[in-house]
């Protein structure tokens, strides 16, 4: 980087130019800047960090060839323990936990530090976080290697969980032997809810089909009332045509009864003719 581009070294560059004769007169600001030089730039490298939050195998400083300043990764011992614990016990992540924060911050447990020697001193039903804190306590306050502290914490965690599992199984067997009847389990309740949801799908489909059928009440085929008792090969139609009876192709609301002698009355024939010719397009012969 050129010196003239660094703001706090401009007066040094001006001194060199005056000494070589490139500048004939001193700038007006030259003496004032020499009397009160600018502050030096801060160091590019951050200060050395402790092993508290720094990776153990990564050097604390970057190589001198680094051209871009980047923050160093932050890593805690708890993160290593937690990652290894859930890698060895993946199903512990499926246990239900509440994430709701209380009104006050939970105070520190009185059993801690040098006095915390066994995991059961805090609880008989430890959680994964209890095992991780216990391993960290052994590592920091009892001067145990991290691998030994983790192995001891995991062994005690599994032992306490086994005790709780056996105690629950024995209590369940005793209750069933004494005649206790338990309700449906959570799995049974979930299956019942699923079946109920499936039933609503069938009811919804049937309701949609009924609504669709009711919406389409019209039909393309005209339904006529009555039909001939026997097939006359068109003789009945020809006889009525010769008698002047016109066939009706419109929907019949009040159809008169046709006898071998013809219609019952002239009024009924006129009414039937008017129903057939409701558009007034058919003219009777004079």
UniProtKB/TrEMBL annotation:
MF-aspect GO terms: structural constituent of ribosome
Cellular localization per UniProt: Mitochondrion
InterPro entries given in the database record: mS23_dom, Ribosomal_mS23_fun
Residues covered by region (Disordered): 40-66
Keywords linked to the UniProt accession: Mitochondrion, Ribonucleoprotein, Ribosomal protein
Short name of one Pfam family: MRP-S25
Primary localisation category: mitochondrion
Similarity comment: Belongs to the mitochondrion-specific ribosomal protein mS23 family.
Protein name: Small ribosomal subunit protein mS23
Species per Swiss-Prot/TrEMBL record: Trametes coccinea (strain BRFM310) (Pycnoporus coccineus)
Organism lineage: Eukaryota, Fungi, Dikarya, Basidiomycota, Agaricomycotina
